[in-house]
């Protein structure tokens, strides 16, 4: 089978690494990929958001199967466009990807189908939004409606902070069109857990739990990033909570999407908060999380390509998906200054001395001499297994020791909370 993976970050490296182990995958391509992905797949220089060129290439090259991993091409309808050409594609269609692409849609869905989440109101009028904040008081949460690279959320401790967030989004256009509609939510409390689930339109099969660290610095300080590390499983996610989530959140969400004529096929990402009133949805994503995917796929024993096919065929219920008992931790090594200003093109040393871990590349390329250089904010994800979570964490940090470059940054508290 000729398989194309769309995307070029650490998540796509992990997906390619796992797919390359499948006996059914005889040719593996990744677009655009990165310098680390080249070790397991042939990289094709097409931007992940260039739907037309991507679909034409997949057709011309007779791809049997395409995995659309990032949010943008999903929201743009890349899966629909591939299907229109008769190409099998893993990932939700545009009308289902909206569960991530529009918070106003996902909040409305949860309200309509009684899926537990924070109370909210949606505004396109700034004055009404400001008045609502005065009425509700703080703490309160302000979100841009559309995709904002995970940075469109303000958890405001004061009314003034919340109002400023609204002004930035609606007056100053900080997130462009994504911020012209804002969602204002009740502030929930409790530990956060992430559960990714395979979905085939009908059935949903949760993966083991995970957690990521979104802030740039230790102690959850500093700006929000795409994720500075992740681990699996989450100690907060007990079998009892898992059962509650299945009954009150996972199955109802699948049924709701189907009832709306938007059956969800792909990976459905549940960002959950374990509140005193029970588990509630913080957010949905329509795809694998990055970096959650890296530790999760290291724990996966089953053939990933078989799972992807079952999702497309609607036969997930017939698969027995197996996971390793071991825990896993991914430590992200980022460029100094990420997520704001950072240099690119810095030579990376020590990669050949790493032992006992997988190094998934997020933002790297080769320089003229063939060495690896930095090419993004998140650069590498050093991912290790361990018998327990603390061991997996210790193994990831130990394995990362030899790696360095100018201004390299990482958090020292991944998996330690
Ligand atoms: P989101 O992009 O919706 O996942 O939000 C980013 C982060 O903001 C979440 O991981 C939570 O830590 C926090 N957050 C979002 N919504 C709420 C809420 N209603 N109450 C408390 N914290 C929230
Ligand atoms: N790690 C969070 C995300 O992928 O959205």
Please render the helix and strand layout as text.
Blueprint: E1 2-7, H1 10-19, E2 27-32, E3 42-43, H2 51-60, E4 65-68, H3 71-75, H4 78-84, E5 88-90, H5 94-101, H6 103-113, E6 120-123, H7 126-136, E7 140-144, E8 153-156, H8 159-170, E9 182-186, E10 192-200, E11 204-212, E12 215-217, E13 221-224, E14 229-232, H9 239-259, E15 265-275, E16 278-285, H10 293-299, H11 304-313, E17 327-334, E18 358-361, E19 364-366, E20 372-374, E21 378-386, H12 389-400
Parallel strand pairs: 1-2, 1-4, 2-3, 4-5
Antiparallel strand pairs: 6-9, 7-8, 7-9, 10-11, 10-15, 11-14, 12-13, 14-17, 15-16, 17-21, 18-21, 19-20
Helix pairs in contact: 1-10, 7-8
The structure holds adenosine monophosphate and glycine.
Residues 118, 141, 150, 153, 155, 185-188, 192, 271, 282-283 line the site of adenosine monophosphate.
Explain this structure.
The chain is an alpha+beta fold and 417 residues long. The chain folds into 4 domains: 2-91, Rossmann fold (3-Layer(aba) Sandwich); 125-180, Dna Ligase, domain 1 (2-Layer Sandwich); 192-318, D-amino Acid Aminotransferase, Chain A, domain 1, CATH 3.30.470.20; 327-400, Phosphoribosylglycinamide synthetase, C-terminal domain (Glycinamide Ribonucleotide Synthetase, Chain A, domain 4, Alpha-Beta Complex). 30% of the residues lie in helices and 27% in strands. It is built from 12 helices and 21 strands. The protein has helices at residues 10-19, 51-60, 71-75, 78-84, 94-101, 103-113, 126-136, 159-170, 239-259, 293-299, 304-313, 389-400, and strands spanning 2-7, 27-32, 42-43, 65-68, 88-90, 120-123, 140-144, 153-156, 182-186, 192-200, 204-212, 215-217, 221-224, 229-232, 265-275, 278-285, 327-334, 358-361, 364-366, 372-374, 378-386. A hairpin with a 3-residue loop joins strand 12 and strand 13 (221-224). Helix 1 packs parallel to helix 10 (293-299) and helix 7 (126-136) packs antiparallel against helix 8. Glycine binds at residues 150, 212, 227, 285, 289-290, 292.
